[in-house]
Amino acid sequence: MRTRPLSELSSRDLRPLLQEEVAHWGRELRWDYSDVCTAVASGLDRRALIGYAVCDGPRPLAYSYYMLDSGRAIVGSLFTTETHRGRGLEEELVDVVLAAALKGRTNERVECQTLFSTSPKADARFGQAGFASRGRHYLLRPLAEPVADAPSTWRLRGMRRDDIPAVARVIHRSHEGSLDAALNLTYATPSHCRSFVETLVLRAGCGRFDPEASFVAESSGSLVGALLASHLSRDNGHLCQVSVLPEVHGQGLGHALVSACLKALRQQGLSTASLSVTEHNTRAYALYERLGFRRHRTFAAHAWVRPPARIALPA
Question: Is 278 part of any domain?
Answer without folding.
Answer: yes
